[in-house]
From TrEMBL, chains A, B:
Protein name as catalogued: Glucose-6-phosphate isomerase
Any Pfam family matching the protein: PGI
Catalytic activity: alpha-D-glucose 6-phosphate = beta-D-fructose 6-phosphate
Active site: E252 (proton donor), H279, K395
Signal peptide: none
Length: 407, 407
């Protein structure tokens, strides 16, 4: 992947300090090491799942589903996948009923993913599905070692896999949480990790991404009160769920009380898809308040060569300039045109990420790039990037409501 | 629908002035009158489409697709729909190929929707599909009267329907643009309009929504520099595309140069879905910068009574409080819990919209409510709510690129 910044930010001292902090963080934060893991045990587990299984269903929410979904939806159109993948995330009864209508129990393996083993959404859904499919071999549980969920799973004779140490949900896509469902669908998880590893090495060992990531992170951090909204404008439908993953990663990591001040800070993530959102959100970027940065993401090679045919429509001859143009070329021209129109504004920070193609290596790089960027910005704006204390209050209120006799 | 505000804002003079301006706008802005239209001609047109057609495909982007998509996706789980509806919006070749794989040409009718008849996305896709299906009776064109597209369509003997006068794309869901695809799928469009009409009358004739809408709009406008991000937190998967429609409506209408100042202004829309986004964006709302308002939307009756079964999981007995709870009740308890946790913060403006059920009337009300709110806020922050000059620059650059020999 290539990343070009149209802004610059030189502050060597701050950048050096941030880099050192991230280097040190590798000792305590688990996600940094994930690209280097040995996947042999995971692949062995995957081999144990029968070929008669044609559907994998993840029961999990947030960090337990968004990463695998991002990768799966990016690669799905390639048609090389061996199994279908569904995600039970919502307690919306309409959604549960609808998803179940797509599933044949005899051909489905369920992955129940919960760190703590107490996630309300996951276990409401699990209980419901368990009442319809009570065969314990239809389930694999992914949880923390020695959690009550592990004890339960062992007692009913289901398989248990462990979450790695010190990897939070939103940084867990390259761990068991993301790799297992993806590998079960025929995705080359080693290539995914290799892509991540390239970015990791480029950053930590003075590659081209070190300078870029440090510049971008210090710019975002320095200007976090002015440019407090960070848009991704991705020119491919296949990146829609990558954007949802980004929204969780960025929002939940960077929306915090500062560690050493009394202030609430936060950078707001927005995921946009081109060209559709040219007809939606673009006006706001172009003429609205100058509070947004924009990162364009484009794909160089779509592996698809459909072309606009050489047809003249009478009275609409103006459209002939489109003739004989491959759609992949058109969509990238649309991206460039919008990018140039925003760059001409001079007060909107823009950068571009160019992905070489639609494959495992590429999406692995992109995920790891955003994880590193998030860690850097979190360090620079003085927050704890890895916790989420703000979601507890709602959980406590829900627990009280559930305990009340009168529901 | 019910709308409860947890904030208040009394400024009778400003509210009166805004109301008068909106009352007057009815003379020049077409969408206000849409709930009162006679749909007989539209229904007659729909009857002319053969029963052998089981799929409707809209070729259109932005305002030509988002409204129908919002309504269709809201009502789809009800299972009463008579035809499938697809949307060709993107120039992404992977997306086009994928959508076409779901379509059988002999059973599909295409609706080509373009006001001007020059939309690049729409006509690239149309040309491509036309090269595969050249039967003119497979297409209906929806465009402005006397546009070059109308001339073209008549020349090839396709049906033409007109867009109403003075209705912009993002306000067009209750016009031909939205009503035709929806009616063709068996959706009761009169009930949709009736829902809108209830909101319209409540607002213009001193009903309960007049006071609420004016309070909310003046609060948003007055505080638009502090609370410049307006989140919808909708507790149902079925409202996901309503959120996308809202993002276009709000962002493209309210992100502008002010009419009587030198300033860029803008309110940034965010669409969230609960409970999933409790595990994503909630942390940022709860502990991040105080720049966000939140509107919770919940559905009282999901027409679905699946219930969490009375199962105790050994070692996970703490989850027994979930037993025997209908999912519809759980999801609303989750909504109330998050709402209460945010209200306790005191500096986050919150309101709640309660929708009685999943039906045409309900979604019609909700759409019109948001159109009125947008018009009011636009008037109050001194922008032209109905244009989108900021998207032109990119179009001009693209045109230049397309005209260059070397592409």
């Amino acid at each position: 992947m290539i990343n070009r910044l149209s802004f610059t930010f030189e502050d060597e001292k701050t950048q050096k300090k941030a880099f050192k902090a991230i280097e040190k963080e590798q000792q305590s934060i688990g996600y940094y090491a994930l690209p280097d893991q040995d996947i042999t045990p995971l692949l062995k587990y995957c081999d144990s799942i029968s070929d008669t299984i044609d559907t994998i269903a993840v029961i999990g929410i947030g960090g337990s589903s968004l990463g695998a979904k991002a990768v799966y939806e990016f690669l799905k159109p390639l048609n090389g996948l061996t199994r279908k993948l569904y995600f039970f995330e919502s307690t919306d009864p309409i959604n549960i009923t609808n998803l179940l209508s797509h599933i044949e129990f005899s051909k489905t393996h369920f992955l129940v993913i919960s760190k703590s083993g107490t996630t309300v959404e996951t276990f409401s859904i699990y209980k419901y599905i368990y009442s319809l499919q009570s065969d314990p071999t239809a389930y694999t549980f992914i949880t923390d070692p020695d959690s009550p969920l592990e004890t339960y799973a062992k007692e009913i004779n289901s398989t248990v896999l462990h979450l790695p140490h010190n990897v939070g949900g939103r940084f867990s896509v390259l761990s068991t949480v993301g790799l297992v469902p993806l590998a079960l669908c025929g995705i080359e998880i080693q290539a995914l990790l290799n892509g991540a590893k390239e970015v990791k090495e480029s950053f930590f060992y003075d590659g081209y991404l070190k300078d870029t990531l440090l510049k971008k992170a210090t710019f975002y951090a320095k200007n976090h009160t002015q440019y407090n909204i960070n848009c991704i404008f991705a020119y491919s439908e296949t990146l829609k769920y990558f954007c949802e993953w980004y929204v969780q990663l960025w929002g939940e990591s960077l929306g915090k009380h500062q560690r050493h001040s009394a202030f609430h800070v936060g950078l707001t993530p927005i995921g946009l898809i081109g060209p559709e959102d040219q007809h939606s959100f673009l006006q706001l970027i172009m003429e609205g308040t100058r509070d947004k940065s924009v990162t364009f993401i484009k794909i160089e090679d779509f592996h698809d060569n459909i072309t606009i045919p050489d047809i003249t429509l009478p009275h609409l001859e103006g459209l002939d300039t489109l003739n004989n143009l491959p759609f992949s070329k058109l969509i990238n021209m649309q991206c460039d045109s919008v990018l140039e129109s925003l760059e001409a504004q001079d007060d909107i920070p823009i950068d571009t990420i160019i992905l070489p193609s639609v494959d495992e290596n590429t999406i692995g790089s992109l995920l790891y790039y955003y994880e590193l960027l998030t860690s850097l910005v979190g360090e620079l704006i003085d927050v704890n990037t890895y916790n989420q204390p703000g979601v507890e209050a709602g959980k406590i209120i829900l627990k009280k409501k559930l305990n009340q006799k009168e529901r």
